[in-house]
Amino acid sequence: MLPAVNEVTRVTSIGGGPIGGGWAAHFLARGYDVTLYLHDKDETPAFMAILETAWKSLTDLGLSSGASLDRLKIVTNLNEAVEGAEFIQESAPENLGMKQTLYKKLGQIVPPDIVIGSSTSGLMMTDIQAGCATPERTVIGHPFNPPYLLPLVEIVGGKKTAAEAVLWAEEFYKIAGKVPLVMKKEIPGFVATRLQEALWREALHMVANGEATPEDIDIALINGPAPRMAVQGQCMAFHVACGAGGMATNLDQFGPALKLPWTRLEAPELTKELRDRMVDGCNKIAGDRGFEEMAAKRDRQIVAVLRAIRDTA
Amino acid sequence: MLPAVNEVTRVTSIGGGPIGGGWAAHFLARGYDVTLYLHDKDETPAFMAILETAWKSLTDLGLSSGASLDRLKIVTNLNEAVEGAEFIQESAPENLGMKQTLYKKLGQIVPPDIVIGSSTSGLMMTDIQAGCATPERTVIGHPFNPPYLLPLVEIVGGKKTAAEAVLWAEEFYKIAGKVPLVMKKEIPGFVATRLQEALWREALHMVANGEATPEDIDIALINGPAPRMAVQGQCMAFHVACGAGGMATNLDQFGPALKLPWTRLEAPELTKELRDRMVDGCNKIAGDRGFEEMAAKRDRQIVAVLRAIRDTA
Q1: What are phi and psi of A305, to 5 degrees?
Q2: How many CB pairs lie under 8 A apart between chains A and B?
Q3: Which long-range contacts (CB under 8 A, 24 or more apart) does B184-188 make?
Q4: Three-state SS for A68?
Q5: Beta A152-157 vs A138-143: how paired, if at all?
Q6: Any A CB within 8 A of B283 CB
Q7: B219 — contact with chain A (CB < 8 Å)?
Q8: How far apart are CA A200 and CA B198, in angstroms?
Q9: pLDDT recorded at residue B134
Q10: Using CA atoms, how far apart are residues A147 and B224, in angstroms rounded to an integer?
Q11: Radius of gyration of chain B (CA)
């Protein structure tokens, strides 16, 4: 039986790079006992630098009661690292063979009722868990860099993952102060990276064609869509920008623009079904809020974001 | 001869919708005399609602000295609207025929040394200016919605636009409190919309395939890449995330991932030339700042952005 999510006090972070180290910092800030596994003792100074940087920001955002750097233990023995852990966050290098070997070992030494989450940004859990004898408790738990600041964790199981492990991870990450997003399907890149990657590849196309420099790309993002995207997301940004008609107006009116060469990425066919999914989805997010209310909140939040950026420039 | 950019005191905004109305609010907040042209007097209440909403945010961000709503004049006669204007921002509906007719008329009634900027998000100035007798002073000046908050203005001329008009627009928008981005080429969608559109189309693909809901898309953006993109842009985000190796490490190490199906958009070939352009571009932005300094600033700014969003939630 999986441990009660709200009674977890001890987690293990495997890996001391920006991701594994960042996770350790996050869990410490949320008041957990954290065991950090380093492959080599020589990685300690680099990890400590990450932790020190992260701790400043975490303190600024507000530590949980009981949070303390004294609750960190660093070990280089894997058996010792997982001992007593009630959750394991794995952030080993992005190499499938290496991860498969690691999960085979973890499958043997970690009790089968302990969930293991992988930080992988590109590999599929179905592949990672292939050689693991107890794959049912292994899930993807993909953070965004820096993992101690950005709240998102994308969660999805592999073919052999039990549904209850996915549910457990969702509840646990939420209690641990993250914003979990359980994916509908196991797709390469998950949701957030796919969105970012589409944008990134279009940026590379523009630089390759001499249409923009890296500086142009970043100026355009920072001063254009990004501050709004940070408070509203792209779906609700379009929904609210179209007034009372919302996403329905957006798609019915600007749908034909999906055929225009405004990016190298060809859009999907705008079927009635896709249109309705978008409209229903945005209406669901909006609930009973009118567009004026949402636009006013968007503006208040963009003002706050712009001031925050300006005041820390 | 074009007027001196720093002596402009009177601008005309054509169109009273969210874009034209938003521009009027912006110019008023920056201390200009503003004449707003409405196609129909009945559009006045909708415009006043936009102005009222915008003015709250603009006041919060800080008005320029002399800024006053008393300096607004609303007219429905185009000849009267452009009288005495030292700059014209055109935000008529996104219809090429309509814009061509408008620019033909503007070409006749606006003195030839007055620059006209178009807010169009999808049309090309070469097409818009086709029937204009004085096309050399017509440029694209594309804002991001809401135009009174997001600083970006993308600038590019058409085939018949004079280089000095593009330069003038860049200088004028800068003085008027915007962040101008002069484009290298006239491409459909300009820079920022192309980036946003690639992301948007990938989002539609995911919704069409049942991989994510609109809610998932927005949760992923708001809690993942967007707050970081608002402070760093995507190029510098990758540059700084790769430590001392920067963009060179990113491309040399993760270049092969550009072949992975992490989005429906196929990446360009990662030639030596493209690699060097990305690396040189990021090094230029970084100047003599080390990656630790830039990472620390990124974190401070993300903390401020997250707090700003939380405090206005």
Answers
A1: -65, -45
A2: 410
A3: B184/A210, B184/A211, B184/A212, B184/A213, B184/A216, B185/A209, B185/A210, B185/A211, B185/B156, B186/B124, B186/B125, B186/B126, B186/B140, B186/B156, B186/B157, B186/B158, B186/B159, B187/A206, B187/A211, B188/A260, B188/A261, B188/A262, B188/B122, B188/B124
A4: coil
A5: antiparallel
A6: no
A7: yes
A8: 9
A9: 97
A10: 9
A11: 22
Most B-contacting residue of A95, A187, A217 (CB-CB within 10 A), to test interface? A217
Residues 6+ apart with CB under 8 A from A56: B299
Give residue-wise pLDDT tens across range A81-113. Answer: 999 999 999 999 999 999 999 999 999 999 999
Q: Looking at chain B, list the stretches that DSSP marks H as alpha helix, in order from N- to C-terminal side.
A: 18-29, 44-61, 78-82, 96-109, 125-128, 163-175, 190-208, 214-223, 225-241, 246-254, 272-286, 291-311
Q: Do A299 and B149 touch (CB under 8 A)?
A: yes
Structural tokens at position B71: 């300096």
Provide the 3-class DSSP secondary structure of residue B15.
coil
Residues of chain A with Cβ-Cβ distance to B61 below 8 Å are: 303, 306-307
Tokens 């998932």, residue located: B216
Q: Which CATH code of 3.40.50.1980, 3.90.650.10, 3.30.70.100, 3.40.50.720 fits the domain covering B5-188?
A: 3.40.50.720
Do the strands B72-75 and B87-90 form a parallel or antiparallel pair, or are they unpaired?
Answer: unpaired
Give the C-alpha distances (Å, rounded to integers) separating A137 from A156, A188, B11.
Answer: 11, 20, 64
What are the tens digits of pLDDT across the range A114-133?
999 999 998 999 999 999 99
CB contact under 8 A, B307 and A195: no
Q: Tokens for B269?
A: 């070939």
Q: Which chain B residue's Cα is nearest to A184? A: B211
Best of A262, A279, A282, A307 to substitute, by most chain B Cβ atoms within 10 angstroms, is: A262
Closest Cβ–Cβ partner in A149, A195, A205 for B221: A195
Separation CA B137–CA B132 (nearest Å):
10
Alpha-carbon distance of B164 to B8, in angstroms, equals: 16
Q: Is B48 on the interface with A (CB under 8 A)?
A: no
Q: What is the ipTM of this complex?
A: 0.96
Amino acid at B111: P
Query: pLDDT tens for residues A26-74?
Result: 999 999 999 999 999 999 999 999 999 999 999 999 999 999 999 999 9
The beta-carbon neighbor of A281 closest among B149, B215, B292 is B215
65-94 in chain A: CB under 8 A from chain B: none
Q: Is A139 helix (H, G, I), strand (E, B) or coil?
A: strand
Residue limits of CATH 3.40.50.720 in chain B: 5-188
Q: Which residue has the tokens 């006749």?
A: B108
Nearest partner of B232 among B302, B303, B154, B306, judged by Cα: B302
Nearest by Cα to A125 from A110, A107, A144, A138: A138
Q: What is the CA radius of gyration of chain A?
A: 22
- Give the DSSP letter string of B54-122: HHHHHHHH-PPTT--GGGEEEES-HHHHHTT-SEEEE---S-HHHHHHHHHHHHHHS-TTSEEEE--SS
Query: What is the DSSP code string of A206-226?
Result: HHHTTS--HHHHHHHHHHTHH
What are the backbone angles phi and psi of residue A151, rounded to the nearest 5°? -75, -20
Of A56, A205, A234, the CB nearest to B203: A234
Element (H, E) at A100: helix A96-109
